[in-house]
Amino acid sequence: MDSILRLEGISKSFPGVKALEDVHFDLQPGEVHALLGENGAGKSTLIKIVSGVYRPDSGTIRVADKEVIFNNPRESQQRGIATIYQELSLYPELTVAENIFIGHAPRNRFRMIDWGAMERRSREILASLEIHDLDVTRKIGGLTVGNRQRVEIAKALSQDAKILIMDEPTASLSEADVQRLFEIVGLLRERGVGIIYISHRMEEVFKLADRVTVLRDGHYVDTRKVADVTEPQLIQMMVGRTIDQLFPKLPAEIGEPILEVRHLHRAPMTRDVSFTLRRGEIVGMAGLVGSGRSEVAQVIFGITPAESGEILIDGQPVKARHPEDSMRLGVAYVPEDRGTQGLIRPMPIRENVSLASLRMLSRASFIDFGRERRLAVEMVNKLGIRAYSIDQIVNKLSGGNQQKVVISKWLSREPRILIVDEPTRGIDVGAKAEIHRLISELAQRGLAILMISSELPEILGMSDRILVMREGRIVAEFSREEATQEVIAHAMMSQTQPAGVVQ
Amino acid sequence: MSTQTVGQEKVAAPTAQNRLKSILLSQEAILLLILVVVIAVLASRSNRFLTTENLLTQGRLLAEVALVALPMTYIIITGGIDLSVGAIFGLCAIMLGWTWDNICLEPLALKTRGMECLTPFPLEASIVVALLIGALAGMINGLFIVRVKVPPLIMTLATLALYRGLAEGISQSRSVRGYPDWFYQLGQGSAAGLPTQIWIMIIAAVISAIVLSRTTFGRSLYAIGNNELGARFSGIPVGRQKIIIYTFSGVMAGLAAWIFVSRVSTTRSDMGTGLELDVIAAVVLGGTSIFGGTGSILGTMIGVITIALLRNGLSLAGVTGDATIIVVGFVLILAVLVNGFIQRRAGAK
Fold first, then answer.
1. Strand, helix or coil at A61?
2. Would you say residue A153 lies in a domain?
3. What CATH number did the domain enclosing A85 receive?
4. How far is B290 from chain A (nearest CA, A)?
């Protein structure tokens, strides 16, 4: 069969990370080919290579059997490849027609934009997608997400796209819009457009796709006909990883409950969340990106206070209206984004380490610089932060060392409850193991730890108990013994609402 | 001195040599150098420049700018700006004169022509009112910036117009004169050989410098300016700190207004027009980054003094007012370029 797109042996590295290694992919005309994989499996990198944003380090790209090299997105578009990104890339202040024809507006004989032709052709394209209810002279800014997406698709067709990449197209659509999208996908397929479809929603893959390719950790796993696979098989393919390179969890004595959260609610991403955290216990929190895990952490930490629900510490109801409140109650939060939330990057290690505990290091609000230096030196030595001086600017440190600085900042407050959000994201394997050991040792010393992570091996390796979140709710809980990558991944992705949480 | 490592620390303390080097390369040191050059050049152009009398007079004039520049340094370090200081200055000056001149306590009423007033509003109370109005005006800036999230530039641009308009409306373009003698002590008197307001300026500068460099409050300002979100995630009450510094800015504008009225013996509503530009220029000349995160009180003080002496020296040397402004502009650009160069060098390390 003639593929309209064929990728062979694609590899791509970024400093410190191998994003893709020897990946294959092909697309037939009139086919919907789903691309599946966990967060960080390499899907985004792959589509960015196809759309010309990145150049692969090695491997070939063929479009309609001709080998091509894309130096920029424009060259990819000229070959008939269009991408509809998650965050739509339209101009809100321009009209529908202007957005559809931006960059290639029809011209009249004076080389001026032919507005009449532009609107007529916009209407034709939309009509060919069975879209009749969209006024092409309206500004994009006032349209619903579903309508904007239709404009994006029309824009792709106006460029004569033969290959359409859809990245999580249903992520923010209403049910009715999802139905219409499926119909449009059907129409495009009949026209012979090949569609690369990325989605976390399994049911969509089964409903729409002809074939599915699974990536895992930047490697190609397999390509199957959708008719020949089952959902558990796909999940197995996505997550089937070994956890032997991780630091083994140390045994810790689990004591009385310290933190209890009851019916915590803050729209939109924290919905009726209840759980308990005990002394010495590490509770893993799994879920897809955007499932509301960080939001729950930030509600508990007081950054975005709860609208309703209760937080109990040592059985006493407490209020967490500001981070100060939670900090006083012994809660510490190592946030997801080191660069913007965790660190003050232009400031030295010393000032970052002391930032959360300045009051404890000062007398009558005068900072005791001697104590501050001793604290920084102690933390640098204890956590093995590699730096030439405590006065080194943290921005100059490696990711792992930066993360250790964030952890130091919170350990210097001697918290009882530690929430770590993606503690090892973007750091190398060695530093990862050190952070795992540290978390494990802290639990041994009696801290209660809530560990949010998108890496299932980390969750499985470290946790005594595992909570799974989806769409702002806790949808499943597993003990260490019950948990496997498959059951967790299934809970993360399946669409069925558990009984009893509907409000 | 030799390199020292303390105990079994793996990280070395900075050596004396490094410390000396970093002091010499600091922005303040370079500014001081610029200031010395400016003074030397100006002294050679006019023999009236480098005299005790001239310098003390200049000190009187620059104290008001300096007092307002202290909180402005705090604000710019957090990445904010306060354009309304000149207008607050004018409003406070007017309120000082107007309350003293127009309010009668017994009978409690606004004075009218021919009315007999048994107990007039005490001037001391007018001074307190002026300072409170300053605080209130600053706090309004802070509250809107923090709670309504209006960008500081826009908010204080709006209150610049608002406060100036209030001052003009209240004063009805009338000036207030004839204050009692004791009132002039602050603006025209001396203590221990120095003009009174120079003492006030020195005390305020020293306190501001200590607060900024040695307290948790000062540290939090740098943290906010470098990464506001990160500061919030570290439990720093970002909103409260901002409201405090904008309020402080209003109070200091009020204090400066009091000194100004005392110095010039009269009150008019256009007082302090353009003060914000002198103040911001001095702060930026002093090495405080307009993007926030860095800066010092010492730098600001050197900046204030440099601009004031440059103006005075040039006019004594017979340079016209227009040309003086051009030179001040050039020096400002030069200082910013030098600072940028140093920071890039430091960043490349």
1. strand
2. yes
3. 3.40.50.300
4. 15
